[in-house]
Amino acid sequence: MANRGQDTGRRVPRIAQAPSAPLYQRAGRRRRQTTESSHIPVKYALRCFRSAILLFVGGFLVLAGAAATINSAILVRAHAWPHVPAIVERCELSLRYGKSSVTWEARAVFRYGAGQTQQYDTTWQPAGSPVYSRSAASNISREQFVAFTKTYCSAAANDGLRVSSMFPGIARRNDAVVGGAWVREIGFGLFAVVGGLVLCAAGISLLPWIEERKRNAAKRRTRRTCGRVSGS
To answer: What are the TM regions of this chain, as residue ranges (predicted)?
Structure first.
């Protein structure tokens, strides 16, 4: 009885209490924020990479289209240039494979001018050359290859060049000038320039900071609209 009020020296162990629900919610929220923040740089880099690809392809198309347009203007202007003889220093023929057809492609180096000092290197598809399917192109013999090379290279040598009187270093094949190749060049040039500009505009608009700016502007417009509706 006397020992009831005395401390026995033993400590009663405390029962651990489970953390309250708000602590679990805060911990889960922190984990989600950490995960989302780790994904943000990756998404940002991918969006920048996407825009860079669009800008690169668009810039390439614009340059190619500009070159084709300039070449078209030169071909039109070359109608007034003198027709001069030229010799073919080197000429070769090859097959160019498209999506569904195969065509001949010629490449030649012309020498012209006083003492044959000027040089003009060009590639073209010979006029009237046959077009093959992929299966038929595999059956072309070496003899046919040699015969076509001799035919088209001799025709190019006999046809000569159109050379600028003001700038003798600028020349074009006579067949390309009189054959209306400028129409094909201007068509491709305009198409490539327009397509390239569209891709460049898309690449710029998809940059992360541009997208964020447009998104914020849309949110502000939405808030103003909601404010007018609620005020009325």
So the answer is: 53-76, 186-210
Q: Which residue type occupies 34? A: T
Say how far apart CA 164 and CA 150 lie, in whole Å: 28
Closest residue by Cα to residue 73 from 62, 65, 83 = 65
Length of the chain: 232
Residue 29 in contact with residue 21, Cβ under 8 Å?
no
* pLDDT tens for each residue of 13-38: 555 454 554 554 555 556 555 555 55
For 39-53, 67-81, 99-113, 153-167, which range has the lowest pLDDT when averaged over its residues? Answer: 39-53
The model's pTM is: 0.67
| One-letter identity of residue 27 | A
**Cα-flanking dihedrals φ and ψ of residue 97, to 5°?**
-95, 120
> How many CB atoms neighbour CB 201 within 10 A?
13
Assign residue 15 a region: left if phi > 0, alpha if psi is -120 to 50, beta otherwise? beta
224 within a domain of the structure (yes/no): no
Q: Does residue 15 form part of some domain?
A: no
In a domain, 24, yes or no: no
Residue 209 pLDDT level (bands cut at 50, 70, 90): confident
- Pick left, alpha or beta for residue 128 (phi over 0 → left; psi -120 to 50 → alpha; otherwise beta): left
Q: Which domain covers residue 143, as residue numbers?
A: 86-159
